[in-house]
User: Which sequence fits this backbone?
C-alpha cells in the first residue's frame, strides 16, 4: 500500500468509530469461567487506581445517545440501585486488598439525576470502602443542565469534587431540537452560572458537530458562546447516528440517511469542515489540542495528586454497565441500548447476590497482541503520542513499528511523525483519529464486535 492509498483510504471514511477504549465494549462476551477478582487483581499495580461509578439514569434520552442509561426510571429504582452499589463496593474493596485511588469519577447516564441523599450515600461509601480522599484526589462528576441544582453543586464542591462535565451540545435551540434534546438556552446558561458560582476548578463543556442543518457559522456561534464561560476543557464530539438511538430509529423508519450537513456556501462540506472550524476557533482562543476531541485551556488549575496512567494503572468500575480493566482482562456487566433491555439489566444488577460481585463473569481476555494494540491506540490518539521506549520496556524489547506496520505507513503518508522515540500524529493525522483507531483493531476483536452489534440490532 503506498502513501497516497493509505491517506485516501483513511480520509474516505474519517468518521468510522470513536476509539476511546480498547477493546471496545461490543467485544465483551460471557466468560467461559468466572474469574475471582482477588486472583485477577493480585498481580496488578494497585497503588494508583481509577475508581468509576456508573449511574444509568437520566431525565431524558437524547436522540444521539447510545450509552447504558434509562430515562425516567421508576421512582424506587435509583434507591435500590445505589443500595446495591454499596454492596458491590464492600465486596470489591475486600477483593482488591491493599490499594490506592489516584482518580475518581461518576458518569452515566447523569449522576446529578440522583437526589442529594443518594449522591451523598455513594460518595460516603467510596470514601469508607476505598479510602478515597476527595479533597486531594482529582474527582469528576457529570451533570446535565436540567439536574445541576445549586444545592447538588455546592455539596459536590464541599466534598472535594474539582471537575464538573456538562453536555450542552449546542447553544442554538433549533440544533438541540434536531438532536431530540429540547433544551432552552436559558436553562443551559443558568446551569453554567450555577457551576461557575460553585467554584469548581475545572469546567468541561461538550459540544457536538454534524447536526442536521448545522453550518460552519452556526457552529462558530456555539463555540463563541461556550468560550464566554471560559471552560478549562472543551470536548468537540462528531455526531454518530447509531441504529438503536432515537435518531437511528427515525432514520430507520424513514428509510433514508440522517441528512447531510448544510453549509452556508453550499459546497457540500461535512463534518471534516466543521471539525476544522472548531479546531481553528479554539486554537485561536489559546486552547491546546490534546486529541481530536479534547481542547484544554493552558494554566487551568488542578490537584497535585498521584498521576494515573491508563497504560500502567487499572480501573475499577462499580454499578451496572461499568467496566473494569486489568492488564489481562477487561470485564463488566452486560450492555444494552434499547429501553426494555437496559431496564432488565439494571433490575438484574439490583437483584445480584452478594457473592456474585467477587468474580468477573463478562468481558474479554487480552492476549499479548491485544495488550500491545491497546497500548498503541491509547497512546497514539492523544498528544504527545506513543512513547516507543515505554512500549519496548513494557513488552520486553518489542518494537511497536515492527509489531504494527501501519504505524510506519502513517509516517510515510505524513499522518504521523517520529521525533526520537516519540511517534505523534500530525494535525492531519489527528483529524483522522476516528479512522486510524479502527484501522488498528485486530481481526478477532472486529469479528466479536460485529457479532455483538448484529445481536443488539
Assistant:
Amino acid at each position: 500500500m503506498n502513501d497516497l492509498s493509505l491517506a485516501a483510504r483513511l480520509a474516505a471514511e474519517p468518521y468510522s468509530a470513536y476509539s476511546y477504549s480498547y477493546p471496545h465494549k461490543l467485544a465483551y462476551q460471557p466468560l467461559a469461567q468466572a474469574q475471582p477478582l482477588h486472583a485477577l487483581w493480585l498481580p496488578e499495580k494497585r497503588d494508583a487506581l481509577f475508581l468509576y461509578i456508573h449511574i444509568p439514569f437520566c431525565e431524558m434520552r437524547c436522540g444521539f445517545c447510545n450509552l447504558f442509561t434509562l430515562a425516567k426510571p421508576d421512582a424506587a429504582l435509583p434507591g435500590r440501585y445505589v443500595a446495591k452499589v454499596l454492596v458491590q463496593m464492600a465486596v470489591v474493596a475486600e477483593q482488591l486488598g491493599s490499594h490506592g485511588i489516584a482518580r475518581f469519577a461518576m458518569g452515566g447516564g447523569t449522576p446529578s439525576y440522583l437526589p442529594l441523599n443518594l449522591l451523598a450515600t455513594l460518595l460516603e461509601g467510596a470514601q469508607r470502602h476505598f479510602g478515597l480522599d476527595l479533597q486531594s484526589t482529582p474527582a469528576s462528576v457529570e451533570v446535565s443542565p436540567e439536574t445541576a441544582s445549586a444545592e447538588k453543586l455546592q455539596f459536590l464542591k464541599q466534598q472535594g469534587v474539582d471537575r464538573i462535565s456538562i453536555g450542552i451540545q449546542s447553544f442554538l435551540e433549533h440544533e438541540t431540537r434536531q438532536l431530540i434534546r429540547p433544551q432552552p438556552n436559558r436553562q443551559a446558561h443558568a446551569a453554567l452560572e450555577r457551576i461557575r458560582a460553585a467554584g469548581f476548578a475545572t469546567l468541561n463543556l461538550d459540544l457536538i458537530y454534524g447536526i442536521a442543518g448545522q453550518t460552519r457559522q452556526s457552529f462558530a456561534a456555539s463555540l463563541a458562546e461556550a468560550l464566554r464561560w471560559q471552560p478549562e476543557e472543551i470536548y468537540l464530539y462528531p455526531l454518530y447516528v447509531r441504529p438503536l438511538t432515537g435518531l437511528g430509529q427515525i432514520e430507520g423508519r424513514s428509510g433514508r440517511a440522517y441528512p447531510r450537513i448544510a453549509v452556508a456556501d453550499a459546497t457540500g462540506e461535512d463534518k471534516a469542515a466543521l471539525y476544522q472550524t472548531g479546531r481553528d476557533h479554539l486554537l485561536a482562543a489559546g486552547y491546546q489540542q490534546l486529541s481530536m476531541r479534547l481542547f484544554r485551556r493552558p494554566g487551568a488549575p488542578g490537584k497535585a495528586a498521584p498521576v494515573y496512567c491508563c497504560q500502567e494503572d487499572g480501573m475499577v468500575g462499580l454499578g451496572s454497565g461499568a467496566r473494569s480493566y486489568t492488564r489481562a482482562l477487561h470485564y463488566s456487566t452486560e450492555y444494552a441500548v434499547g429501553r426494555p433491555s437496559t431496564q432488565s439489566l439494571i433490575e438484574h444488577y439490583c437483584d445480584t447476590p452478594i457473592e456474585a460481585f467477587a468474580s468477573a463473569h463478562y468481558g474479554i481476555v487480552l492476549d499479548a497482541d491485544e495488550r500491545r494494540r491497546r497500548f498503541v491506540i491509547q497512546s497514539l490518539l492523544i498528544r504527545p503520542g506513543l512513547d516507543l521506549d515505554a512500549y519496548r520496556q513494557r513488552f520486553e524489547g518489542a518494537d511497536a513499528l515492527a509489531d504494527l506496520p501501519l504505524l510506519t505507513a502513517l509516517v510515510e503518508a505524513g499522518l504521523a511523525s517520529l521525533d526520537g522515540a516519540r511517534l505523534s500524529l500530525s494535525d492531519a493525522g489527528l483529524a483522522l483519529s476516528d479512522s486510524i483507531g479502527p484501522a488498528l483493531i485486530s481481526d478477532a476483536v472486529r469479528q466479536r464486535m460485529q457479532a455483538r452489534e448484529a445481536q443488539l440490532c
